[in-house]
Amino acid sequence: MNTGTELWLFAVSLGASALGGMLGMASGIFIVPVLTMFGHVDIRSAIGASIVSVIACSCSSAAPFLKGRLTNVRLAIVLETATTAGALSGVLLAGTIPASYLFFIFGMILLLSAQQMLAKRRDPALAPTQPLTGRSTTRRLDSSYPDRALGRDIAYRVERLPMGMMLMYGAGLISALLGIGSGVLKVPAMDTTLRLPIKVSSATSNFMISVTAAASAGAYLVRGYIVAPIAGSVALGSVVGAILGARVLMSISNDRIRLLFVVVLVALAAQMFLAAFGADFFRGTA
Amino acid sequence: MSSRTVKPVRIESLLAGVLNVGTWLASVVIVAGLVLSLFKRTPFPTGAQVITAGIGLFILLPILRVILMRTIFVKERDYKFAAAAAVVLLIIFAGFAIGILSK
User: Which residues of chain A are within 8 Å of residue B34 when distances are taken between CB atoms?
Assistant: First the structure.
């Protein structure tokens, strides 16, 4: 691996993670397509590099959410039993699934992300919050978070936990298989199933991503999927990108970027489908 | 605000601190490795080895976070959550084991 390639990979991963960071997504969703298409990295090494960058992103961006008391750490550790179990299944499957299937699943996830980005997220501050009628003593998962817009604490309950756990298992599996954070699956699962306020869902999902990714990253490191120069550049790019992305996000208006992202996601999805149906078109995917 | 919400803040700021310091440490090690790999003939630790160490630190960081959470939950006699943390740790180690076995 020469220096030029490393600089190129570093620049590419910086760009990809800044993109992800701007919309509060883990960078993985951009890194795998970009590495396989523009870097001609084979998909397993791309997934290995991506899973490390996902850990880096999650760890480097967790602090503000924790300090702002948006992250529900108790709920996170309970759901992590399901996400890591899913990741373990993903690791077992990863060795047996052909590359073309991986490209196809990835394409589907990209489309799902695009669709989610188009759908308007409801404003958490305006969402009706049901008053707490009884204390949940069996599960101490219910909590509250400070809402800046309203200037007070908003209490919330955790509902339908078993269903949530099942969806988390699926999210963990996809995360390990594709090397993504799968926040794109976790956040809606938490929104719709557990009925959490959106800010709590995002913060808690982001917090859980690193642990979920660690369950598969260990195996991939030992298996040799994690190629040091690639994964190192990508991880570093992710940290810088996550920091830059958060800054940029605050200074640019949302709607136009959102549309741009949808276009990028759909284009990447199309490329992944092409790769799925003609995998030999790309180098190193056999 | 009830008094119950006061306690978690301490856990959360502790976790935030650990994650921040860990991210910096791992990043610095990776930078050092990338810089080392610019020089063609380096003695023992080669650039790639140093980068791998940095990547290892990144993978260890969430594991450390779960261990820390387990310790705190045990201290607070929150045994159900401590058990959940133990399960998560076991699953992560199982992941490493599968990696070694399926190598």
Answer: 6, 10, 229, 232-233, 236
CA separation, residue A185 to residues A116, A170, A226 (Å): 10, 8, 24
Q: How much is the ipTM here?
A: 0.86
| Interchain CB distance below 8 Å, B15 and A3 | no
| Digit-coded pLDDT (tens) for B60-72 | 999 999 999 999 9
Would you call A74 an interface residue with chain B, using a CB distance cutoff of 8 Å?
Answer: yes
Residues 112-141 of A with CB under 8 A from B: 140
Contact across the interface for B98 and A220, Cβ inside 8 Å: no
Q: Under a CB-based contact definition with an 8 Å cutoff, are residues A208 and A80 in contact?
A: yes
Average pLDDT for A251-270 = 75
Q: What is the pLDDT of residues A57-83, one digit of tens each?
A: 888 888 888 888 888 999 999 999 999
Contact at CB, B9 and A59, closer than 8 angstroms: no
Distance, CA of A116 to CA of A103 (rounded, Å): 20
Helix (H) or strand (E) run with residue B95 in it = helix B79-101
Is the CB of residue A150 less than 8 Å away from at least one CB of chain B?
Answer: no
Task: Kindly calculate the radius of gyration of chain A based on its CA atoms and give it in whole angstroms.
Answer: 19
**Segment holding A145, helix H or strand E:** strand A143-147
Mean predicted confidence (pLDDT) in B12-29: 92
- Of the two residues A133 and A26, the one the predictor is more confident about is A26
